[in-house]
Queue: 2 jobs
Job 1
Amino acid sequence: MNKKIFFNRLLVVFFATTISTFCYAQEVSTQDSIILIKNVNIWDGTSDNLKNDQQVLIEKHLVKTIGTTVSVPAGAEIIDGKGGTLIPGLIDAHLHLMITDANTSNIYNNYEWSYIGAKATVSARNFLMQGITTERDMGGPVIGLKKAIDEGTVIGPRIYPSGAPLSQTAGHGDMSNLNTIDPQWIGGMTDLFHILGWFYVVDGVPEVLNATREDLKRGATQIKMMAGGGVISRYDPIDVTEFTEDEMRACVEAAQDWGTYVAVHAYTSRSVQRALQAGVISIEHGQLIDEATMKMIKEKGAFLDPQANFIMMDASQSPSPEKFKEVQSGVGNEMALAKKYNVKLAFGTDVFGPLGIEKNEMNEFIARTKWYTPVEVLKQATSINASLLAMCGKRNPYQEGPLGLIKEGAYADLLIYEGNPLTDIKVIANFKQHLKFIMKDGKIYKNELYTLQGKQKHGKSAVAPSSQGHL
């Protein structure tokens, strides 16, 4: 993999610098602002009820003070929440920001990489403007985009990147053609989707260790492995189990050496059990697991990150309808078992595709209420997800305060809704109608409320601009 490492270093620099030219973020407020939000009912991310008629003082990018009456510093911007519901910014634990086409083959084989990066900047903005202030990216060359967002060049959520997922040969991530000879057999250079960091196809403990450490070197906050068959992959049926336990354990140990963890793509009981035995703590999908496997997830203290929204999708629109139907058939059983055993349930949607598809992310909120109350779903999308993200330890790029909570010292990632999402989850899902205010890192990206004092004129609506209007 030495040649690949060289090209990875070279191209990630080009990627990070090129995407920054496509979309420029002009925030309504600067990070040095002092902002008081008054007249709001607060849900803090963990409680079962609202605290009514509260005020929140934000200094720079952190929550400074919360109370019924807060002293207002001179020069503070004052925003009237108009009796709305203030909640923590939402977190999606399973996205792929770089996959911006319904046909993933186009991305891997046909599109020039800067075109993909340009579209990803628009997708990142779309997710933020529907309330997603943080996302865990579960595979793809997103680290350059993360850097551009963090430095304020483009608009988007905070990103916890996995880097290039690890796939075995013929696994969920092997996008080669049948007539493509493995370059390692003939001493040749690896192909472009390896070089750009879409996937690392590796076999055996030494290659797994090499790929894991390469991801960590480039800035991954956690590692993603493909532990079983996938819907969109070419060679592996859904029932296939991928990577040996020794290979998985090598990846887990290498990640633990860096203070972080491994997540796996897996649908079946066999693949999930093998991953858990190897020390994996985040199971992505899991739709086809049985009761014994759900009990094992509970006993191991692992997180399960299912996608209930699959039940709302038309299988005929999938690139592999029969595969998707197989996965879809297990959603109800999985969610019922997760509820029965009270496992730690992350909130991840796995929504990806052409620009405009981001709104489908909201279907996960609706779908989960078949098994969970609205407040339980909101906890999954805020404080529970935040506890999963924190498992990356010192690899956490956002260490100045907690996410997914409204408390003094927490990051000022805040949303204000017209209505009460604790009793009606459609308040969250219908974000165009109900979401009136978006703040991330102490910066305002949307404000349809009254600004009583400060930079905005009374009652003026402000929305962070974009070069394209996909929302």
Job 2
Amino acid sequence: MARVLIVDDEPSIRFTLSEFLRRDGHEAGMAEDVESGLALLRQGGWDVVVTDIVMPRASGVELFRQARQFDPDVQVIVMTGEPTVETASEAVRAGANDYLVKPIGKNAIQRAVGNALRIKKLNDEKRRLEALNRQYQESLEKIVETRTKTLKAREGLLQSLFTAAPVGIGIMEDHRLTAANDELCRMVGYTVEELAGRSCDTLFAEPEECRRLAEAAAARFAEGGVLSLETRWRRKDGVVREVFLRCAPLQLEKGGQAVTITALDITDRKEAERQIEDGARKLHDMMDGSIRAISAALEMRDPYTAGHERRVADLAHAIGAEMGLTANTLEGIRIAGYLHDIGKIAVPSEILNKPGRLNTYELDIIKAHPQIGYDILTQISFVWPVAQATLQHHERLDGSGYPGGLRADQIIPEARILAVADVVEAMSSHRPYRPALGRECAIQEVRQKKETLYDPQAVEACIRVLEAEPAKYL
């Protein structure tokens, strides 16, 4: 059961909506204006606020702007008898979660409150995960800081004398050790006496590695350079350690050439690097999960397009891969695919799910969703142009698209790819106002209108992808 506050200056609306919600198992409170509504909200414990926009003295927008200051987690549903694009945009920018047009039926208010509660649950879980992530990141940073300080301390002592150096130093003649410092002895677990005259292949985890290293070192020395590499040594007790090895030629006074080796045990550093890579992978997975959660929340408002964002993301990613784009660019396209319709959160559910054709007024509301999505996504510091791709995914090469009427190169490549994937997926899927048109019809549409509406390279790549794996993306 959730606590829902109804704020409206019309008593009949307050009592009717409250009764609908009580029958649905929720606790409903009522307030006749913004002032009394804020007084109740300050007491805390509310999950959802359903507020009218136009009320005496102060508007509903002012109510939830103030409410978010002392309760950022409360979900807000706006209702109005005079819906406009400007009203919807203002409500979304101020933080509204849904937008209902009066008169409001029982199913509409129950569905909107149910969606708001699911979003609140997702937000609560997101905050919990973010707190855990912060704890993990702080712990990881401490580990890395400790390991980094240790390694820097070791590197800073490389200029010490041979016997006191914090790195292993040895001299080899004819592939046999003739000298070793204390650190080298400690690293391999042998005494100086045991190492003297010992073949170098006994130091390596794989004996053949010594021969390969000698050949590589000879080639580098012939070029006037030195050899640096990472390898593995086996200690006397059988434990294998990861080692950074540097080999340089040494001219002997008696004539001939020896090799100096400088060895640093990097086992701890390599383990720290593996932990950092694991942490980065977990952070990426967390971000990806958050984006999928947002996409799932959007689909709850429009069951007819369930899975649309995922399919567009997958198809756009495959198109970009077919075009030879980099992995980093492909990741940005995939994320934009999941979020490209986020602006539809401002579109009333009645319009999204309308079974018939939309009128001009309703189309104008629908066409506002790219700009609203852009306004939302610019608040997030993506490393990819996700917001720009969202804004432009309904633009067309000939300037006939919306919202900006952009042409050709004014449209970023990510948006051009997204446009093709969006059209093909939409035409291949069922909508409230028509049955699915099918994959072949969708391909024919983009093929006939490439260069006029759609990017030719993106269209050809899309066709190749769908012909190669017709059942994977649609």
